[in-house]
Design a protein that fits this description.
113 residues; alpha+beta; Alpha-Beta Plaits; 5 helices; globular
């Protein structure tokens, strides 16, 4: 598994657009799961950090292959993927790759217990 955590500076005035779009995902979980499966994505989490100078999206992902996940997303016909790409292009000002110091899960352990 590969893990990535990004700190994305949002363009001024786009935070509401991002949060409104993210809120639509819960009503379209069938499309979200289809996207995750095609991208070999295991976990995708988004957090919002509000700051005085800017707002940031903290974007955590875990996939079998981050490169494959990105490639599959870019050529996907899934509406959620297409919207995500558009949202990123319109709202992401800069991206900082955060160092992952520790990442563990117990999913496989729970399955075997």
């Amino acid at each position: 598994m590969e893990v990535q955590c990004l700190k994305v500076r949002l363009k001024p005035g786009t935070t509401e657009y991002v949060t409104d779009w993210v809120k639509t995902l819960s009503s379209r979980m069938d499309l979200v799961y289809d996207a995750l499966i095609s991208e070999t994505m295991v976990v995708e989490s988004m957090f919002l950090e509000r700051g005085e100078e800017a707002d940031y999206l903290i974007f955590y992902t875990r996939a079998e292959s981050l490169q494959k996940a990105n490639e599959m997303m870019l050529k996907s016909n899934n509406p959620v993927d297409k919207e995500a790409i558009e949202m990123m292009q319109e709202t992401w000002e800069s991206i900082q790759l955060l160092d992952v110091l520790f990442d563990v899960d117990r999913v496989e352990k729970v399955k075997s217990d």
